[in-house]
Structures are given as structure tokens and as C-alpha cells.
Queue: 2 jobs
Job 1
Amino acid sequence: MEIGPLSEWVGALAELIAVAVALFLPYYNERKALHQRLRRYKHIVEQTLNTAAANQLTADYRDFCSFVKITLQLDMDDTAVEILEVGQALITTVGDATTLSFDQLQTVGELRQQLANINA
């Protein structure tokens, strides 16, 4: 039995590596995109929580409410839903208020801690 020339072995190894990369690359890109999307969601919710904690809700808050409602309907990832549920809890806590009470500010602090505990 002959093992064949070295060039065939190198060619076969290159093909094996190419197939492995072709199979792994889409998975890697999808995971990377998911991670970036989760970081963006967390950043948006975190910014709004910080604004609410400073008692400085502005017109951007209405945009945040729309963002949370729409994104909760579209995103199916468990971590994304967990992040957006913190945003939904903020919306529920704030309600129609423009200035938050002491109890509301305490709840906002608890939501900030809850968001910090989410790994994204």
C-alpha cells in the first residue's frame, strides 16, 4: 500500500480545513451578531434607567417605550427578552409620571441592579 505523494496529503488537509471553516464561520458570525445586539439592547435600557434614576425623563422616553414594545414582539432570544423585560418593568414603574417619587426611584435602582446581573 502506497501513502501517495506529499502534495496530495497537503491538498487533502487544505480541503479539510476549508470545509471546517465553511461549516463553522456562519455559526461564529451569528453568535457575534447576537452578542452585539444584546449589548446594544442592554446599553439602551441602561441609559434609560440612568436617565430615570437622575429624574430626567425627556421626549426620548417615548421612543424607548416604543422600542421596548416592538422589540419584545420581534426578538425571541431568552437573554434579549430578559433585558427588554427590565425595560418593560421601567415603563410600568414610571407610568405617566414626569418626575419620579422616592418609591419609584428605589424601584429604578432595583431594576438597574437586575440589569447588571444579566450576562450579555
Note: The radius of gyration is 24 Å.
Job 2
Amino acid sequence: MEKLDIEFLEKLEKLRLAVKRLRFKSSLGERKSPKMGRGTEFSDYRSYQIGDELRYLDWNIYARFEKFLVKLFEEEEDVEVHILLDASSSMDFGNPSKFFYGKKLALAFAYLSLSSWEKTTFSYFQNKTKEIIPLERKKENIYKLLNLLNEIKPEGITNINETVKKYASSLRRKGILILISDFLSSDFKEGIIYARYKKLPVYIAHIICEEEISPFYSGNLTLVDSETGEKIDLFLDDDMKIKYQKTLEKFLNEIEYFTMLYNVEYLRSITTIPIEDLILKYLRVGGWIK
């Protein structure tokens, strides 16, 4: 079984230095709130009111315009980051496997989140949540997560709907959900809609492998569903490959449309893209990190 190692953590440290800080978009969950003088990022001015602290007056503005204006800042609210990894049988496919790639991505998100002093929790699921690991704000817990990820094996069926619903229902504080999966589930939309109904920002990391994009098989085949065991006999020729490509394109377009409709952040990645490139280039461009 593919294993994560210390060398990957060293790469993550280089990422941390390059990224500086993990910062999710506030538009999904309204993480920021304007408060006077307590935040770190300047937002706006407003007129001085009786009771305002004098230290927040902008004396440069007063010297130039003889107006008493108070500085406002954006203060980030304390939220928790929840990383959910699909550990079902369908993830055990490809070279490298989707599951190994998902584990690396989960570890990367956890590392950056902990390095940004975010309260972080990791869990993995199949037909239901299997284990919940509180990483708190302790960066040293990344080694605990590393060891756990190396022990997990993909097996069983996926039930994203029930998993996300129950997980979202269990949260008592504001939280961000990062869902890592191949989304080869009977359905996943209801769970995500429920999370959005609960006003939780949802970030989807959709993992696919090269073998799914361009199947290299041909001729008489027996396809076996890795989760249900169902078998289908077919003859894979050029015409069938064209039909497959159209079906795949429809599947991907439907997910993208769904995420746009419900204001869900969506990232799709092929397992051949190095995690470091994904973090530095694609996530930064997409606004997932700063």
C-alpha cells in the first residue's frame, strides 16, 4: 500500500513558507465582521461617535480635513476547519490511486490549517463517518494524522449524503467543510445542500485519475463495481469510448453546475498533478489560499 512519509511533510513546510496563511473565502460563510480597532486588516472609516476610543481616531485625516473619523477593521471570526476524506472502495483505483492522492491532499490541508492556527478536525468516511480526529490547533498533531492516514485502507461503499448530513448536524460552532472524494456515489447533493442550509461553507476537492479520463482498456471486458460487486459485460471499441467520454463530460459538468448553483467552492484535480503544484498554483489562483 502507498504510504506517506516524512519527506512529504518537508515539502509541506516549504509550501507553508510560500503560502504564508491558509485563508478561505469569506463570501461562503461571512467569516469576517467589521469591528472597530480589534482586527488586523483595515476596512473603512466612519464618523466619530461619543464613547469611541480616541486611540482609533485617524489623526492624519483630522490634520488635513478637520474631521473626526474612526478606523474600522475586518476581524476574522473563530471558525473550525473540518476535513472529510472518502475512504470507500472506489477510491482505490488509478496509479497513483485516488485514495493515496486524497490522503496527501487531506494532510496538506491539515498542515496548512494548523500552521495558520485554525482549529482543525479530520475524519474519514465510507457508508458513515468512521473516525473523527481532533487536531485542535497543535501543529505537532500532524504526525498523529500522518500515522493514521497510513493505516486507513479504502473499503466499503460510499454514502456521502448521510455522512455530510450527520456531520453537519453534529457541529455546534461555525465550521468549514472540506470534502475530498471521487463523488462516485449514488448521490451526494442532498448532504451538501443540507450543509449549505446550515450556513456552512463547503469546499469540494474532486479527485479523478488518468485511467478514468482516458481508459486504456479495449475488447471484451467484465466491469466490476468496486463497492457493490455488480458486474457488467461489454465490448469496448472506439464508439463505446466516445459514449463514455460524453457520459464523463456530462457527469463533470453536472457537478460544476451544482456547485455554482449552491455557492460551493469546487476544485477538480487529476492524480498526476503533484500536490505541491496544486496547492501553489491552482488553489492560489482559485482563491482557496492566500
Note: Confidence is low (pLDDT under 50) at residues 26-39.
